[in-house]
Amino acid sequence: MHNFIKKLSLILSGVAAGVMISLNFSAVADKALKAELPPLPIEELRAFTQVFGRIKSDYVEPVDDKKLITEAINGMLVGLDPHSAYLDSEEYKELQIGTQGEFGGLGIQVTMEDGLVKVISPIEDTPAFRAGIKTGDLIIKLDDTAVKGMTLNEAIKLMRGKPNTSITLTIAREGEGEPLEFTLMRAIIKIESVKAKLVEPGYGYLRVTQFQEQTGENLAQAIEKLFKESKTPMKGLVLDLRNDPGGLLNSAVAVSAAFLPANALIVYTEGRTSDAKMRLMANPEYYLRGPGKDFIAGLPSEIKTVPMVTLVNGGSASASEIVAGALQDHKRSIVMGTQTFGKGSVQTILPLGNNTAIKLTTARYYTPNGQSIQAKGITPDIIDETDDASRQLRESDLSRHLRSNKVDEVLKIDATDSQKANESDDKPKSKKSSSKRKTPLEFGSNDDLLLTKAIKHLKGMDADAKRKSTKTAKKSS
Fold first, then answer.
1. Which CATH code fits 89-189?
2. Where is there biased composition of kind Basic and acidic residues (predicted)?
3. Where in the chain is the domain with CATH 3.90.226.10?
4. What pLDDT, on the 0 to 100 scale, is given for residue 431?
């Protein structure tokens, strides 16, 4: 056994070095030229090899080496923060497909919280959204299988499947005495990332549901269509980012650039490596994915000045917070709604070979004025609780969430959050709830009270502008 552990230690040291090379961390390479890398943690690696050896020799059933190493990698990443993860070949492929706006499943953005799957946000126009799944719901069973003890990837695999097949989710919801059961039919999730309509002549509505590869171009097309359809000059515009879980960074830059002047700072990032330190501006090189026509250049000039209200809520996360923060800091738009989710960290996809990858948190986002989004979110200029009947889940509620401080701060496990999750897990898991489920609000509909308030606010701004114009004209005459 001693010789086995000694050999395994040498192998693991080689693997660690190989992984560092394969990830091609340019900053690590630069540092290596100037100084020696810190020594490997020999004692910790020795403990690892001892555990590995014990499992191989004493576990009740034989365990495949690949499974043990994969689970060890999973454990390293899951222990860092809620967003870092190991992606096997299937998950890596699904991630790439998902950014293109079409994938199979139920339509839920989820995270793992103390052994349970917690809903960040249901995606609009999907089986989960239509069934009434809500932000903050704890999924405790999938069909007859308890979630406790699963990894997040395992739970996601169970929820995904062939279209037109059903799955029953048992959910613990705050305020409900007993678990709720939802039977959902899986479907191909096709996300329409941009929706648009004229609320009335002169007042337009734009909704971004998720930031995908074509979102910037789709938004530009929607803007052009709105301006052409309006029979009067555009007097006000509502940008709706509620329940938008985020997506691609360059698409967030594109959406922001549509409304901001050229060279305006949209977001900057701070991390440990040189690649993690970026300043992204409202210029084509920061939002175009390769050579091609600048779809923002041909937009009506009024799009840079028309009065705007941006709607957000606790389900607005990541890329949507970048847009809201940029428009707010540049005083380009009033932000209305409730505090946003607070996901202000950058995840970089680092391929490992064999069609696998790791999703690693590498930096924090900051708004143009230097405000951290992480675990704080964007505070609206006008706070309105219309769409948040109850407190929504936010980044700060997640165990191991990254602090909002600078990068030399450590990760923090919130014991209070762990206690809340454990209390939720203590609820009975076999009973069905007879409580009524509200039909989800359709954003942009006639029942959307926050949209109505936003339009009223824009009309008030327009009336104020007219009064100021009249006073100026009288003084001139």
1. 2.30.42.10
2. 413-428
3. 192-342+377-387+441-462
4. 41
- Tell me which of 134, 343, 359, 376 is the catalytic residue: 343
Q: Which of 187, 186, 195 is nearest to 244 (CA)?
A: 195
Nearest to 173 by CA among 132, 128, 145: 132
CA–CA–CA angle 117, 108, 454 (5° rounding): 120
Is 318 assigned a catalytic role? yes
Tokens found for residue 283: 């210029």
On the question of pLDDT at 351 being above 80, the answer is: yes
Choice among 137, 329, 388, 397 that is catalytic: 329
Q: Which of 9, 84, 316, 318 is catalytic?
A: 318
H/E stretch holding 188: strand 187-190
CATH T-level fold of 192-342+377-387+441-462: 2-enoyl-CoA Hydratase; Chain A, domain 1 (3.90.226)
Give dist(CA 100, CA 93) in Å, integer. Answer: 11
**pLDDT bracket for residue 161 (50, 70, 90):** confident
pLDDT higher than 70, residue 178: yes
Q: 116-142 burial string, b = 16+ CB within 10 Å, else e?
A: bbbbbbbbbebbbbbbbbbbbbbbbbb
DSSP 92: H
Active site residue 301: no
pTM above 0.85, yes or no: no
Q: 343 catalytic, yes or no?
A: yes
